[in-house]
């Protein structure tokens, strides 16, 4: 009998989407910029660089803190807790975001458990 795949909350998708957007914006700036820096400094792309990266940083910090719904019980799950790393089998020892790497083995968390129904789901 095959095991059902874990349901996903697409938590890591938030950060992958932000990273891909930043990469495409940089490519657009680089490929559409003028040959000389003086000409490039007067373009719209150059003027949008600062606000874009400030906005991206703010969105990144907000995405880390926004709770998500458990795919099993539909209750909100906090994104900051003392989580257990399945790779090195150790607890973090303090409140950490689910998007952070493990203190001990530096691996990112792929799954988590709901605080309410105790079921596992993919991040």
List keywords for this structure.
123 residues, alpha+beta, two-stranded antiparallel ribbon, two-stranded antiparallel sheet, 3 helices, 8 strands, 39% helix, 15% strand
Helix and strand topology:
Layout: H1 11-32, H2 37-40, H3 44-65, E1 68-69, E2 76-77, E3 80-81, E4 84-85, E5 90-91, E6 96-97, E7 111-113, E8 120-122
Antiparallel strand pairs: 1-2, 3-6, 4-5, 7-8
Helix pairs in contact: 1-3
Protein model, in words:
- The chain has 123 residues and is an alpha+beta fold.
- Helix content is 39%, strand content 15%.
- The chain is built from 3 helices and 8 strands, in the order H-H-H-E-E-E-E-E-E-E-E.
- The chain has helices at 11-32, 37-40, 44-65; strands at 68-69, 76-77, 80-81, 84-85, 90-91, 96-97, 111-113, 120-122.
- The chain has a two-stranded antiparallel ribbon with strand order 1-2. A two-stranded antiparallel sheet has the order 3-6.
- A hairpin with a 6-residue loop joins strand 7 and strand 8 (120-122).
- Helix 1 packs antiparallel against helix 3 (44-65).
- It is elongated and about 60 Å long.
- The two termini are 25 Å apart.
- The mean pLDDT is 84.
Radius of gyration computed on alpha carbons: 19 Å
SSE series: HHHEEEEEEEE
Strand content: 5-15%
List the total number of helices: 3
Q: Give the helix proportion (percent range).
A: 25-40%
Low-confidence stretches: none
Q: What structural class do the secondary elements suggest?
A: alpha+beta
Mean pLDDT: 84
Instruction: Give a short account of the largest sheet.
Output: 2 strands, antiparallel
Tally of DSSP β-strands = 8
- CA-CA gap between termini: 25 Å
Strand order of the largest sheet: 1-2
């Amino acid at each position: 009998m095959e095991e059902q795949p874990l349901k996903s909350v697409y938590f890591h998708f938030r950060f992958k989407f932000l990273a891909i957007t930043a990469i495409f914006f940089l490519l657009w700036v680089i490929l559409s910029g003028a040959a000389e820096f003086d000409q490039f400094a007067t373009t719209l792309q150059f003027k949008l660089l600062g606000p874009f990266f400030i906005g991206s940083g703010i969105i990144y910090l907000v995405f880390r803190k926004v709770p998500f719904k458990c795919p099993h019980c539909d209750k909100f799950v906090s994104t900051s807790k003392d989580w257990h790393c399945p790779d090195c089998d150790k607890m973090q020892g303090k409140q950490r975001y689910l998007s952070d790497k493990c203190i001990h083995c530096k691996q990112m968390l792929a799954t988590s458990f709901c605080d309410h129904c105790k079921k596992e789901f993919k991040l």
